[in-house]
Design goal:
Strand content: under 5%
Shape: globular
InterPro entries: DoxX (IPR032808)
Radius of gyration: 15 Å
Membrane topology: Multi-pass membrane protein
Subcellular location: Membrane
Protein name: DoxX family protein
Order of helices and strands: HHHHH
Low-confidence stretches: none
Keywords: Membrane, Transmembrane, Transmembrane helix
Number of strands: 0
C-alpha cells in the first residue's frame, strides 16, 4: 500500500506543479470562464501555493520528520478542487465535465490523506 500511495503522491505532485505553471501563464477566465470570479492576484497566489503543496507531497520521502506534510498538502489541494467545483456550480454552468475532473482529483487527494494518516503512515 505504501508504494501505491507514493505513486499517487508523485502523480498528484506532478499534476499540481503543472497546474501551477498553467496558472502563471493563463488567467482564471482563460482557463475556465466559470473561474473568472477569481481575481488575478488570488490566481497567482494559488500558483505559488500549488508549488509549495506539490513539494510537500514528496518532501517526506527525503525528510521523514515532515511526514504530516503530505496529508496536509493533499487535503489543501482537495479543498482547492472543491472550491473550483463550487464556483463552477454557482456560475450557473450546465457543463459538468470540469466538475467531474475536479471531483476525481479531490477524491484522490482524500485517499492520499486518509492513506497517510490512517492506513500506512510514513514512519
Amino acid at each position: 500500500m505504501s508504494i501505491f500511495l507514493w505513486v499517487l503522491q508523485f502523480a498528484l505532485a506532478f499534476h499540481t506543479l503543472i497546474g501551477a505553471v498553467w496558472k502563471f501563464s493563463n488567467t482564471a477566465e482563460a482557463t475556465m470562464p466559470t473561474l473568472g470570479a477569481i481575481p488575478q492576484g488570488v490566481w497567482m497566489g494559488l500558483a505559488v501555493l500549488e508549488i509549495l503543496l506539490g513539494l510537500c507531497l514528496i518532501l517526506p520521502l527525503f525528510k521523514r520528520d515532515m511526514a504530516k506534510a503530505a496529508p496536509i498538502a493533499a487535503g489543501l489541494i482537495a479543498a482547492e478542487m472543491l472550491v473550483f467545483c463550487a464556483l463552477h456550480l454557482f456560475s450557473g454552468s450546465t457543463e459538468y465535465g470540469p466538475m467531474i475532473y475536479w471531483l476525481v482529483v479531490a477524491a484522490l487527494c482524500g485517499f492520499i490523506a486518509y492513506g497517510r494518516l490512517v492506513l500506512k503512515p510514513i514512519k
